[in-house]
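REQUEST
  id: r-88c1
  op: predict_structure
  target: Histidine kinase
  payload:
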Amino acid sequence: MILFNIKTKLFLVLVLVSIVPIIVVSVSSYRSYTKLVNEQTSLVTSTTIGNSVKSMEVILQNIDRISVTLLQQSSNATAYSTVSDELMKLNTTNDQYEIFMIRSKLKLIFENILLGTNYINGLYLFTPDGKWISYGSSGTDLRLDYIALHDQWYLDTIQRKGDLYVGEVGVKPYIINAKRSIGFSRALYDPNNHEFLGVFMLDCSMSIFDGLKRNPAPSLSNLYLADDQGKILYSTDGQQVGQSLAPNLTSAMEHVNSLSQYKVIQDKIMTVMQKVPGHPWSVVANISLERLYEQYNISQKLLLYIAVSCAVIFLFLSFFLSNLITKPIIELTKMMRKTKSHPFVKIKPKRSKQVDEIGILYHEFDKMMKQIDTHIRESYQNKILTMDSQMKALEAQINSHFLYNTLESINSIAEIEEVESIVVMTKSLGDMFRYSIKTDSERVRVNEELQHVENYMAIQQIRYDDKITFKLLVDPEVRSRHMLKLLLQPLVENAIYHGLENKRGKGSISITGKLQEDRIIFKVCDDGAGMSREQVLELQQLLSQPPEFIAVGQRLKQSIGIKNVHSRIVLYYGDGYGLSINSEMHQGTRITVEIPSL
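RESPONSE
  id: r-88c1
  status: 200
  body:
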């Protein structure tokens, strides 16, 4: 039991209040610092990749522009002749001198392109009949016996119908003094008649990817350029060219576009990826978080030392304070355990002269419990008496009102004609009156309440000369349950006097009863005059008001039927039950009664 006394609990509370925040702050600081480093690293990497993608986009746009505008450029400074015109001549001649002249005319254009871009190794034009013209730098040129008509890159370029084709990275065997490079090619068509003129190819060195070398942390990360198949075309460390990315990164490429970046952390490696606009390439960056965390290992140890030191200090303070605070309280608990009588009324302080907070606690607790006990007893007694008086007053109101109306009906019929119907009415009235004044219990079986309604309707059908049709549709399982008596008959009475009495022709009243989960749902429906929307709202507002009584047996001037039935249900069962009203003018009224299934 020592483990559960107040001293131990207070000690544990103080420990938790002091040490737990230290742990939380330390862990939170460490995680926040780690998160900040990750976010900054991710931000710098994302920015670097974004800049690299933009750099690649500019270069590729430049290559695309060169290949698109090539045909429109003039091959002669004095006489206007475009590259398209020279290619058409080249396709229609086999004269070596004329081919030499065409090459000379195009030399200036090609040299300007070579001089304007430092990453182009060579420019090559291939005609549909196998002839070619080449302009290379650094001693590169096509082999004299090379025919491109059946090479796969040539066929793929033609198949793209004028769109830029990006070749594979590697050493091209058909180029003299070739180094590792990448080719871009496009099929050329005459702008006037769309005649196929040949294929234009740019052979670019790997320096085209120099934009990827802008790595902010080369010791911690590596940048790659991969195609849509996940094959690495270029890497800043130059060691993984030709290999494939991890399968999860390859599958993620399908969901990456040029406007968003894909980020994932797996096996302490952060990977950031973005696609190059308009091309099947993606720039990928891998950052080693493990090596990154090694850079601030000192901060981690410092946080740990501070947390441990603070925890030890607060541990000693918690023990001292718990012992100081709980010592007088422990004495009080020992005294209270000696009391064998009612713990709330007869707790007597052992130290009656003690005037500090503990002494006040002795006396005030004893006084408070006595007052609470007295208050609870008086409050419940008064409440029970009030509820009983209210229930009896409500029943008396309903019974007296109904008896008055029924006797008036019997008197009217007796004055007009002497018939056996009076016998039926008086017997039904007697049964109803005995049921109303029954005092054995407030609750009756549903079947008894329904019999009471049938006796009432027998009287009313005689009174109204079968003008009213009555239907009773209650499930058998409902009939055996219990309910508060005199709930349904006042609603039927209300339907007759306010709904059907002013209706021309015959009318009908029906009562249905069903079980719905833990409730009994009765519906009293008539096809009488109904009520306007304003009347329905006024009645709903009346039902929402709590019952008000002037005195026992007296009532306010409110609707006896609906209001009193609702008040009795609320008083007996609680606020979750009662009546709800639906009505339309000249269509009738439906009253729903909800009570618990008992």
